[in-house]
Amino acid sequence: MKDKEFNDIRAYRTHRFDFISDFLIVFPLLQSLAWRTTDGIRLDYLGDRKKVEADIKGGAFFMTNHRDIVMDAAWLSYLLRTHYFIRPFMGVGNNLFAKPWIEHLMRYLRCFAVKRGAGPHAQLENSKHLSAYIRMLRENGKSIWLAQREGRAKDSNDLTQAGVLHMLALSFEAENRPVEEFFDFVKQLNICPVSITYEFDPCDYLKAREMQLKRDNPHWRKTKRDDVESMKTGIKGYKGRVVYRLTPSINHDIDAMLEQFPYYRGLPVKDQIDHLCFIIDQHIFLGYEIYERGTDFDKYIESRLALIDIPNKDEAFLRDKLYEMYNYPVINHNKAKQHYHLAQ
């Protein structure tokens, strides 16, 4: 694969010996983490398993909700590799490359850099560059993982950011193709959403803490130290039962939508993207694993609240936010079941 023009962002691992390092080094580490920090990690399917397996067979763009900075992609990669021998390339924000050795390690693990923090013009050029790289990977039959949004949804209200799809659209726009072909371009990416559900989020108290800090000071920003703390907590913290649920390609939904509303092809790309965001969201919402919460859950929330140490600690606000991040997936799942249906 000729990717020298993408040396600044590309993942390093493309050779045939990846198999050896995966199964002798990387995967035993991930298995050890699973044993120590979860009550099991399960790969599941939304709807017909054979339909989903057919959709991902030739490579896919796996787009997930974002629960953990590191483990979301790591365990998905592990599950896909061990079940289907698929090893996706993974998009990771360059803000996580806090030290050179971390960057080299993550790129070796098939992570490519999503550049952030530049000015408007530089950010646009970075996005075009990234869009072209992703397009090149998919044209070569490679699978990709990317979160549905930049950064995690602190309240677990997982909504696909239109900006992510706008970034993907930049390589389409660079070719000056007519707007009527945009859905065909998206279908070539073969976006297969994946729902990630943790029974317990080890970073829940850190997210609640951030929400109060931002409420009290709109200019507050996370530091590199905060990012490292979130990474450590997410990796080492207890997660309970974890479910990764693969869903069918959105190509089926696009075809059904265009059959019913053919004029959607002529809409501006911005409006077409809004429809795509809705489709992706519904796949993820329907794919959530819903856990029963007993009376002990109230004690759990209080134990997480006790971990938060900040000035002017607003316990009522923080408690509401902790409950909110566990309630949103249930709310969105139930809403999705009411107005959207995938073949079961």
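(ticket continues) Second input and output from the same batch:
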Amino acid sequence: MMEWKYLLCPDRIRDSKGRPGSGDLRTEFEKDYHRIIGSASFRRLQDKTQVFPLDRSDFIRTRLTHSLEVSSFARSLGQNVSEMILQQVKDESFLPSYKADVCDILQCAGLLHDIGNPPFGHFGETVIRDWFRKRMPFLMWRGKPLTEVLLPQMQEDLYHFEGNTQALRLVTRLHYLVDTNGMNLTKGLLGTIIKYPVASTQIDKESGDIRTKKMGYFYADREVYQEIQRSTGTHGRRHPLAFLLEAADDIAYKTADIEDAVKKGCISYEQLLHELRVYGDGKQDETYQRLTELLSCRYERAVQKGMEHPRANAVQNWLVRIQGQMIQSATRGFREHYEELMAGRYKKDLFQGVPGTGILDALGDIAYRYAFHTPAILKLEIGADAILGFLLDRFVDAVIPYDSGEPMTGVQEKLISLLSDNYQAVYHVHAKGKDEAEQLYLRLLLVTDEVCGMTDSYAKRLYQELGGIQ
């Protein structure tokens, strides 16, 4: 069984606790919050896509507003679950003081969960993965294809590139303020943001275990990952708070995507109500049906109150109600599977088998068909593929000979000069003393680090500038 005293580990990879009597009364987890919101990486989320790339509307969500919503839901889940453990489970190892720590960790984890994502939403991750799968066999290093030089895990890291994995790398490596420990956050928080505690070579989407769905750390960051695992006592198991973080993310994006889609005119109130009623071919449980009919009740109430836009008002009010219901449902799921979660045996999400939670699946399916799979979004994604593909072409070509003694062209040298000084410094620190294969792998990560640090607008502008497009 995992133990809360280790799961909520307040230690950092580099000890940075203030001196006694310094007057700073914040807990270590409260300090994490201030480190995150004061970072440039967090601020850049305001210009990164959630669903609608490069949208000019002030209403439509960005990665920043989405992360704030996830943070809020995660903290609420932390409050609910902590009280449940104290009052119902009565786990004596969970001290009353842990409630505040759980809430602070989850609040911070919500802010961080998308901080490693590249430009243009999840499609940006797809572009990076597809680019390496397609190009890797044709990239050469001293007469050999990269597939014959890099270790299997190094290759799989790039073939299965993940924003979640990049988030861990970003906060533990790439914020070169004091040293290469990044933001130097608490290990309890770092353990929580590792949603998939496996290497890229251990991914198994057919296992039925949520922890092997994607990779959780890069080969380059294996030592950091292992230290977090030792300190939190997880040892390859998923941190229990990671389930709450994932639930908060599901609640936030599946409701927000529908709200944004209605606001953009992708789906009407009438279409949404119809889709909810027919979803699952009559297999909805009683709670699902009750929640669905609540949408029409919200519309009738908006009409009675003389709202100027009763349909939009009904959808917004209904989604707030769904969010509250799903917070209760996730809390119930945590309670019902508490022993399995603490033993690291639970394999599903917290909504599995809880009455009414099929509403989230319905909203996800409806958003995909009405918002994601539309000509406007598809055109933007094709444009994103052109932008990121071009940048990867140019920068990867430049980094392969970089820092190796191999000759470089003038253009390659200029491209290297455009890379972040911080990221280059991190590369040099970690490449020192490594063999040629790992140094080459770290140079490829230097490119993905750079691309993931770009905002949508900057990536588009750089593409235009380097491509000679006016």
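Agent notes: The mean pLDDT is 93. The CA atoms of residues 77 and 327 lie 6 Å apart. Closing as not reproducible unless the customer responds.
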